[in-house]
Design a protein that fits this description.
There is one protein chain. The protein contains 22 helices and 14 strands. By secondary structure, the protein is an alpha/beta fold.
């Protein structure tokens, strides 16, 4: 490779952070890549320019009036600005050249560049394995999986709350959408809808997903790097996945197959609105011996794009296809695990991949609209509703109710984020998520007026196991009797577990209340912490499966529909 070609490649090449090596005792260790003087200076200048550009995009509308000098003509201001841009450009070019020269004369970096080039051109397992020895900027990582290679030119039909096109882009229309608006109404509504569109595509998305802000990514870069290093030392392998709209998704897979009892089960984790797989919820299932696949939302970490609902759907769809087609896991051996706002892609995947093993939702809400309305001033409620329903509609309960498999809901007793009002256990939106799930799956239990709903509300308002046991004794809940009734209902349905269920159809009002509380205790686990505290390892499990209580002779014919 000629010096000129090497210099050119190194000028526009990625930053190298760490190098992984096998120690003499067989352990994977990492050592930092030591930058030389010119490379260090060039990195600092380039990083500073990137940060100024990111901040400038938000600050320019505010600073523009002050940048204009009143006593100067437009031409003079333009000339001053052009000189400033030219000077900054010269500094940037000089720093790039200096950095490239320093890298081109560094044998460690040139070896890395040779490995990266081979990985991009050969696409072999050996070259990929060699590349895994380096930790560098993800934009330069070669593509490992494209969903288009699996689905072809035409994307498969997907389920949505309201499917608008063949690609499966979906959104729920406002509830009054069916009412035909007159021309006068449309004229008056136009300014509100225009404002809603602008806000939704600017700062509303950043408020809902602060982890997509470049400043947050920059501030957490050291923590993300260290978290990723720790996962790789545990056997993690990094991948770049490309969605149907060409977004690049940063994912990491920890393979426990043939290494632990739970290793054949893959847990796919979906993080919260400021969460990253590097420092997120992967640790809990990993400690229980599951294989784990974590990914970052579009716009988070190394992932490109923005976390709009359609891009979130395409991202989790690509992750699921990668797990099945590339990693080789059966759909029935996948647990979908979502925390907080990660419940949205999790339930969307469950709705579209109904054969998954189970769904675990931790500190998740039923619908983002009540939370958004509660956090914003009353004067802008109309605009907030339009923004949510038209552009950022995260209706998790509706999606969950289109999945008939095993579900575990985990509620945080002191959750300050998904409660309306804040820090209110009775106002925790996880209560509504469970209520909507039970109403859909077991409607006959709630056919006795409001009695079952009231006793469920009482149960969900209790913060301690002792209080729940007291209520269950008060209304006479007998677990064995409830199990027998559930098993009998399954047997009467020819051994099938299907929803809506007929459970409670022939029961009196008291028995229906008992069954309601019994089922709530099976679907819901409580953790006495706040929203962002890690989930206790013992609370993570696939969830309660009604098929597990069916007698063995009937179990032979049981499956979910």
């Amino acid at each position: 490779m000629s010096l000129i070609r090497t210099l050119w490649q190194c000028t526009l090449s990625p930053r190298l952070f760490r190098i992984y090596e096998i120690s003499w005792v067989g352990h994977l260790v990492d050592k930092p890549y030591e930058t030389k003087g010119l490379e260090r200076w060039g990195d600092q200048v380039v990083t500073s320019f990137i940060m100024m550009w990111s901040v400038g995009l938000y600050a320019l509308p505010v600073l523009a009036p002050f940048m204009y000098r009143r006593n100067s003509t437009l031409a003079e201001n333009a000339y001053s600005l052009s000189k400033l841009v030219a000077g900054a450009g010269a500094i940037l070019v000089a720093s790039l050249v200096a950095r490239g020269y320093s890298r081109a004369t560094n044998p460690i970096y040139t070896k890395f560049m040779k490995t990266l080039t081979e990985a991009k051109t050969r696409h072999s397992a050996e070259s990929k394995q060699e590349l895994q020895k380096y930790e560098f900027e993800f934009w330069a990582w070669p593509v490992d999986f494209r969903i288009a290679d699996v689905t072809g030119d035409s994307q498969r039909r997907r389920i949505g709350l309201e499917t608008d096109n063949a690609l499966g882009t979906s959104r729920e229309r406002p509830r009054n959408h069916t009412r035909q608006q007159s021309g006068k109404d449309l004229v008056f509504a136009l300014p509100c809808r225009l404002i809603a569109y602008i806000v939704a595509h600017t700062f509303a998305l950043k408020l809902m997903y602060p982890g997509s802000m470049s400043l947050i990514n920059w501030a957490m870069r050291s923590s993300l790097l260290q978290g990723r290093i720790d996962l790789i030392k545990q056997g993690g392998e990094r991948f770049k996945l490309v969605t149907v709209e060409s977004n690049e998704i940063d994912a990491l897979f920890v393979d426990r197959r043939n290494k632990s009892n739970n290793g054949d089960i893959l847990v796919i984790t979906s993080e919260g609105n400021c969460g990253f797989y590097e420092v997120g919820i992967m640790a809990t299932p990993s400690k229980k011996g599951y294989s784990v696949l974590g990914w970052n939302h579009p716009g988070f970490g190394g992932s490109t794009g923005a976390p709009y609902p359609a891009q979130e759907q395409n991202a989790i769809d690509c992750v699921m296809q990668f797990a099945v087609e590339y990693l080789g896991f059966k759909e029935s051996n996948v647990i979908l695990y979502g925390w907080s706002i990660g419940g949205y892609p999790t339930t969307w995947a469950a709705m579209n991949y109904p054969a998954v093993h189970s769904v675990v939702l931790d500190a998740t809400f039923d619908d983002v609209l009540p939370l958004a309305v509660d956090r914003m001033p009353t004067a802008v409620e109309g605009i907030v509703r339009t923004i949510i329903r038209e552009y950022l509609n995260l209706n998790i309960a509706e999606q969950l109710n289109r999945y008939n498999g095993t579900v575990l809901l985990i509620r945080r007793i002191e959750d300050e984020m998904v409660s309306v009002p804040v820090n209110s256990l009775s106002g925790n939106r996880g209560n509504q998520l469970l209520t909507k799930l039970l109403l859909r799956r077991y409607p006959r239990l709630f056919s006795n007026g409001t009695e079952s709903a009231l006793v469920l509300s009482r149960y969900l308002s209790l913060a301690t196991p002792r209080g729940k046991r007291t209520l269950m004794r008060e209304i006479g809940v007998n677990e064995e009797s409830c199990r027998q009734l559930v098993a009998l209902d399954i047997e009467r349905n020819e051994g099938l577990v299907s929803y809506p269920s007929t459970l409670g159809e022939d029961c009196d009002s008291v028995t229906r209340q008992q069954l309601t509380v019994f089922l709530a205790s099976k679907y819901l686990e409580d953790q006495a912490t706040q929203h962002c505290d890690p989930l206790a390892i013992e609370l993570f499990h696939p969830g309660w499966d009604p098929r597990s209580i069916v007698p063995t002779k009937s179990n032979l014919n049981v499956h979910q529909t």
